[in-house]
């Protein structure tokens, strides 16, 4: 393999419980790889193996051409990590954290100043006084301030307002242009669409699908609820392609799931009646996965290019 981030037959057991099994993937330099899946699928186990926090039961993880090991401090110094669950020293200030991590990484604290300003973060306040969003800002500053070659980001915009989310997207894009490689775990479809080149979908420890973002978004699902200004017949949507789970909730109200690029057909049908209210929301990434990779018997159907076999995350 020749990727900056690699897993080769990566397997991790917790006793008899499988975390991931036979996971194989490769992320080339300068790309953003979205790692998606429902809670308990194996995302956290994979990330911990990539960081050298966990020792694999079998197989291996590699970063920057080096095998990841538990005592690989030099390699980890080239990696930036923003965890999904943030653990900070509650009685200390943001500035204390920045100085402390700077000393560990042998980097000047001034390296964080640009991030402090761009994220509009006040480092003088103690962690216990910070909102969830400001704790997330501090985690981002600590993970990114040393200009790492590899970024491993677990729900990086959690708790941030839309303006700061956009700032984070810009920072990621800038780092990628400078040569960084990003491994991004997220549940947010718009976030994945905004920054990722390719995605891997993991379920029960398996890499169940791997696709370009463009292909995945072609499978996008929307949840539709419409209330008409007057009662309509039950067969109003008959003949409209791409509708599933169609349900009439009363004489005027319908709900349905719209697949892929069929929204235009639905809107044209709606335009033939007076609409009193309309709601269209994106389905979650997990729902996209379940809709398109479910086998006929209710299990998970693996596409021909699925990358691994496996189990469930502990």
Description of the molecule:
- A six-stranded mixed sheet has the order 6-7-8-3-9-10. A four-stranded antiparallel sheet has the order 2-1-4-5, with helices on one face. Strands 12-13-11-14 form a four-stranded antiparallel sheet, covered by helices on one side.
- The chain contains ten helices and 14 strands.
- Helix content is 28%, strand content 29%.
- It is globular and about 70 Å long.
Q: Summarize this, please?
A:
The protein has helices spanning 43-50, 73-76, 94-105, 113-118, 132-144, 162-177, 189-195, 213-217, 263-270, 285-292; strands spanning 5-14, 17-27, 32-36, 58-63, 66-67, 79-82, 150-154, 181-185, 198-203, 206-212, 221-228, 243-248, 253-259, 275-282. It is an alpha/beta fold and 314 residues long.
DSSP strand content:
25-35%
What structural category characterises the helix and strand content? alpha/beta
Give helix and strand order, one letter per element, not per position.
Answer: EEEHEEHEHHHEHEHEEHEEEHEH
Total of helices: 10
The whole-angstrom Rg is 22 Å
The beta-strand count equals: 14
How far do the termini sit from each other? 28 Å
Strand order of the largest sheet: 6-7-8-3-9-10
Looking at the structure, what is the overall shape?
Answer: globular
Largest sheet properties = 6 strands, mixed
Question: Averaged pLDDT, please?
Answer: 88
What percent of the residues sit in helical stretches (DSSP H or I)? 25-40%
